[in-house]
Predict the structure.
Amino acid sequence: MDDVEIKVSSPGRMCLLGEHQDYFGLAILAAAVDLRIAFAGRRRSDRRFVIDLPDVGEREEFGFDGDIPYARKRDYLKSAVNIHRRAELPLSGWDVEVRGTIPINAGSASSSAMVVAWNKFLLDAAGDPRAGDPRSLAELGYETEVAEFGEPGGKMDHYASAFGGVVWIRFDEPMRFDRMPNPLGTFVLANSLQKKDTTGMLGFIKSHVLDGAERVRARIPGFTLKSPLTTEVLAAIDRLPPDNRRLLLGTLRTRDLTAKGAELFRGPAFDHEMFGAMLDAQHGVLRDLLQISTEKIEAMIRAALEAGALGAKINGSGGGGCMFAYAPLDPERVAAAVAAAGGQPFIVRVDEGARRESQDEVSR
């Protein structure tokens, strides 16, 4: 084994506005947060990866001279290696340790941050210039996590983690991406400690929204998910079966809220109270129409607002996982209130994207 060492990390994310929009080709506003996952490795003399994951008490070991079989659903460490091996990236063996501070399976993009960081590690190890290109890292992360396994998710998490900061992404064709100004103060991100079924949630919402849109199109030719929410469209939606009706309406209301949020970030002066009100409005849609909140998350949100947060909402796909509150004035008080409601709080700020750490960081 030689003395080559690499450490890279990628951040988790908050979906500010736009849950369940990216896989419909619609827009999102997201922000990377200073909870991260890191890969630290030392090169081996053979062609094997030995990967320790102490946070979850697991260890992976595999070679890569041929196609690596998947031992479980969403076997992301192996899928990234398979993708690079097929593309003939020069791979070498590494001893790797993976550690993170992002709540796992809690709606804050822990798995997407992991695949973005892992792809960056592999590219850095091979001396590939794509390691420094956030768009390449985001696309590889999506391929590793979603496309390789035929999952129904979108690209929001991968782009937010790879680029960092506040991002506004319109997932139509061609995709349009903007780094937004970052006037934001502190947030309290809190894990409800309720596990969720992200893939099942995404699949259910996606199928019912697309079916609902098709039924509306039968009444209003030319209707798409980008059509204005006119009186005629609302009347057609109102005739849909209950699940189609609420999920399609929730998707369109979220679309319009996200557009207003982008205007706020792009405007001459950022109104923090208006931003908080937008978070509240978005959560109302997610709670009442998409129905992805839980009683515990509702209690955590109420506690945060009563403690002085300017706005709060569920974070990510829902059905459990995390919420966050915008608390630029007294985040400690808000965090204490959320903890008293049963959450696990983290005071966070917007952070940069995927990065290679300094040699001093590697040696710690």
User: Anything to note?
Assistant: The first strand starts at residue 5 and ends at 17.
